[in-house]
Design goal:
Blueprint (H helix, E strand, L loop, with lengths): L13 H14 L1 H6 L2 H11 L1 H11 L36 H4 L4 E5 L3 H12 L9 E6 L20 H4 L3 H5 L5 E4 L2 E6 L10 E5 L4 E4 L1 E4 L3 E3 L7 H4 L1 E2 L3 H20 L6 E6 L3 H14 L3 E6 L11 H13 L3 E3 L4 E10 L5 E9 L4 E4 L1 E4 L3 E3 L3 E3 L17 E2 L5 E2 L2 E6 L4 E2 L12 H19 L14 E4 L5 E4 L6 E3 H14 L4 H13 L2 H6 L1
Parallel strand pairs: 1-2, 1-7, 2-3, 4-18, 7-21, 9-16, 10-11, 10-16, 11-12, 19-22
Antiparallel strand pairs: 4-5, 5-6, 8-17, 13-14, 14-15, 20-21, 23-24, 24-25
Helix pairs in contact: 1-3, 1-4, 3-4, 6-13
Length: about 525
Amino acid sequence: MRYPLLRAGLEQSSSAQASSSTRLRQHGGAGALLLPPFQRCLTVARRDPQAGSRALRLNSSRSCRRSRTNSRISSRGISSGAVRAESAPEFSSTEKDSKAGNPRICVLGGGFGGLYTALRLDGLTWPDGRSPQVTLVDQSDKFVFKPLLYELLNGGVQPWEVAPRFTELLAPTKVNFIQAKVESIDASAETTEDDQAGSITLANGHVVEYDWLILALGAVTRTDVVPGAMEHAIPFATLEDALKVDQQLRLLESAALRSTPQIPIQVSIVGGGVAGVELAATVAERLGPRGIVQLIVSGDTVMTESPEGQREEALKVLKSRGVNLVCGERVKELHETSSYSDDAEPRKLVEIELEDSSVVTSDLVLWTAGQSPVVPTTVRAGEVGTYGLPLADKGEAVTDQFLRVVRYPNVFALGDAACVEDADGVPLPATAQVAFQAADYAAWNVWASVNKRPLLPFRYQHLGDMMALGAADAAVALPVGDITLSGPSATLLRRAAYLYRQPTPQHAAKVAFSWLTRPLADVLSS
């Protein structure tokens, strides 16, 4: 297998799989947290497509979600994708595979949604020798396991563990990888033919043709909506962001040691969601009494969409580490200023002006507020003008129950760039957990589309909520009851779950060896 699945149950029949998933849903617990029923069915599907199809239909037999209406589609302009290719190998996709019956599948975006879909597609059994040509396109050369980024700031993980190279992850597969930025896609609406569905233009002019397209470009942190934020704040969403924050903290820590008397390091974090809270807790733990950490929240409290028990645990940790909460305030503007200590050494500071005209002064500003989905510009060959994919209110591509973009049957979308609903028609949150589960369905539905089999409606199963609150602290809300684990036990459970979620068994084994060979005490106290 090219991606981690629990070995138990691989030899079970489809009916046993359905029974097992029922027991897991009834009892919940750590087992349910690690293994969604769909993956066990998908294992059967890879070995026996017909039996797998029956098992998957059993797993998806809940009531269909409500029909989407055009009133949800935004009339706003398209949220453009990246506009300039960093690097891309010479790549020319011809009609050879399409004419021979081998589908050309292009996956845009190498996050949880895109990479995991590509790996699933490569692992499926394709009848009649119709093995697809799968191409993954991403502007970075590395996959980023974002839930572990925070641990780069406290030494809990190493960069290669969090961000392995795509070439390394895809080496055991037949998936092609292109490092490039996407400029536009040419997709014809109402397409029903399997071949010649469209093409992707990269910013360097290279063109990749496809029969089936999967959009999973994710979202970007918006620092351009507040004057001065782009110049004076650092987002925390990529490996480069995390390494830059770590470098800035090291510089501030070094300067603080040289100053007489020592001046506290002031760090402000904008955004009261899970990302902002995780970042505040981690930075406050790292700086200890040397720092003053402030968390600026636009609402009345933090993590308004999280389980109550998890939110309470997070607030308790923030309070214990002296994090100052500034609630009910929006940032109006950021600008740079300077001050001088007793030894006349200049100190660059950032002033954060709030809407009530108060000012918060900081050495470092970290930005986690505001996410914008990345949906590339859509054009039609031979026609003048730009034609956008249907967008929801927040700018995501509107999908049907099978994860297909509405009116574009050859285009699927998942992850932060897609508006995906649950069985009751309620939009699901843009989390790694949703993208991870959607990857299974997207891969299966592309397989089913190519092979003229019934598609399966996406059924999300909530497996709990996990967040880091420091080197040896975490808050894990279990999917059953109102139970929240905290402390070292939650940290170990979180790490075990994320080890299982690694994209390939090879990388998971290397990460596990790295973690186990370090003294456990160092891991928990780092």
